[in-house]
């Protein structure tokens, strides 16, 4: 691996693997570029390019759909443990970390967490419900973070206030909107006529509702909506006034229900280019797996790179994505069979 860079552009060249990665720390631009005659890699042996880190399971909202079941009694990741994760991530060439929880900005060491991450050459981003955003945290966010995602919850008053606070402080702001069989109707309304409080955001990101958390509402799974074609066609239309994005759990719908270029949409990269570390230092390919299996413990005897290469759990994700589960589907090579955890998230209509 050879690392070069100038100003905010960071370039990792993996000559032995036949590709390079390019990342702009300020704009968020990222590209994985194979050398002439080579194909884009299926996974990155050097380590994850992105890490999802839960630095706390503390939250005072108590939302019934929270997949982490976070409460006021949730625990925080120790600062020393976090620094160890970041040190190892930097050694593997990780570009970005997504900090979550719980509500991550209410971690008692949050400002030091942001400063330390940037000092190691890694860009921190985080998702917030809007509570606990002090002036000092906003200043630390502006100097360190690539972007902040605001979780959108009805009736959206708190969401609107948080967006105004962040954009008013010149912080790049995305909105995370969970789409299910009911909220997809609101999503369509927003796409047709965006509410005023979305003015100034960077992008509206749609997250497929997962059947996990304190309560599971099977009837809310997105696949039960009769407006899927309408939603995906509208969300990928060039006429929409907002920049729109999707989480990996939506890509089956994007591939099968739209004419969007496959070059612009990635399948799930869990265990291939991304990794998740929970606040208790257990490691998983995907954050939604943390309540389903035990996970691999990061310890004095086991590093992140060791887990990345040798964990049977992580390798099982790679096998799933490489398998032929969907048979002769024309989208299999780009969708990679959809979600390894929740079959009900597949919304292509082909299975």
UniProtKB/TrEMBL annotation:
Q: What Gene3D superfamilies does the entry give?
A: Aldolase class I
Tell me yes or no: is Ribonucleoprotein among this UniProt entry's keywords.
Answer: no
Named cofactor requirement(s): [4Fe-4S] cluster
Start and end residues of each Radical SAM core domain: 45-247
Tell me if Repeat is a UniProt keyword of this record: no
Domain of life assignment: Bacteria
**Keywords for this protein:** Iron, Iron-sulfur, Metal-binding, S-adenosyl-L-methionine
Q: Which GO terms describe its molecular function?
A: catalytic activity; iron-sulfur cluster binding; metal ion binding
Q: Which InterPro entries match?
A: 4Fe4S-binding_SPASM_dom, Aldolase_TIM, Radical_SAM_PqqE_MftC-like, rSAM, rSAM_sf
Question: Which PANTHER family does the entry link to?
Answer: PQQA PEPTIDE CYCLASE, RADICAL SAM DOMAIN PROTEIN
Annotated protein name in UniProt: Radical SAM core domain-containing protein
* Species whose genome carries this gene: Agaricicola taiwanensis
Taxonomy-wise, where does this protein's organism fall, top ranks first?
A: Bacteria, Pseudomonadati, Pseudomonadota, Alphaproteobacteria, Rhodobacterales
């Amino acid at each position: 691996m050879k690392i070069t860079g100038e100003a905010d552009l960071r370039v990792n060249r993996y000559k032995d693997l036949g590709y390079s990665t390019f990342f702009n720390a300020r704009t968020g631009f990222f590209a994985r570029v194979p050398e002439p005659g080579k194909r884009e890699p299926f996974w990155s042996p050097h380590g994850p390019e992105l890490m999802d880190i839960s630095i706390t399971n503390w939250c005072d909202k108590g939302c019934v759909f929270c997949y982490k079941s976070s409460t006021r009694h949730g625990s925080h990741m120790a600062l020393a443990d976090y620094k160890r994760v970041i040190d190892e991530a930097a050694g593997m060439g990780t570009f970005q970390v997504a900090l979550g929880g719980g509500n991550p900005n209410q971690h008692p060491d949050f400002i030091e967490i942001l400063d330390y991450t940037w000092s190691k050459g890694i860009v921190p981003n985080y998702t917030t419900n809007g509570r606990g955003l002090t002036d000092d945290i906003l200043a630390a966010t502006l100097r360190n973070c690539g972007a902040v995602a605001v979780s959108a919850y009805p009736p959206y008053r708190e969401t609107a206030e948080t967006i105004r606070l962040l954009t008013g402080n010149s912080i790049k702001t995305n909105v995370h909107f969970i789409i299910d069989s009911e909220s997809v109707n609101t999503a369509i309304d927003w796409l047709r006529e965006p509410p005023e409080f979305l003015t100034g955001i960077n992008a509206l990101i749609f997250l497929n509702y997962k059947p996990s958390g304190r309560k599971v509402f099977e009837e809310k799974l997105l696949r039960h909506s009769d407006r899927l074609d309408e939603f995906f066609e509208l969300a990928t239309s060039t006429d929409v006034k907002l920049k729109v994005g999707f989480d990996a759990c939506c890509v089956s719908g994007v591939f099968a229900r739209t004419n969007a270029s496959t070059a612009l949409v990635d399948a799930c990269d869990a265990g291939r280019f991304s990794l998740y570390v929970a606040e208790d230092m257990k490691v998983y390919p995907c954050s939604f797996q943390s309540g389903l299996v035990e996970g691999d413990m990061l310890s004095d005897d086991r590093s992140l790179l060791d887990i990345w290469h040798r964990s049977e759990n992580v390798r099982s994700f790679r096998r799933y994505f490489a398998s032929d589960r969907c048979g002769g589907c024309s989208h299999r090579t780009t969708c990679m069979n959809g979600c390894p955890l929740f079959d009900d998230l597949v919304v292509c209509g082909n299975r």
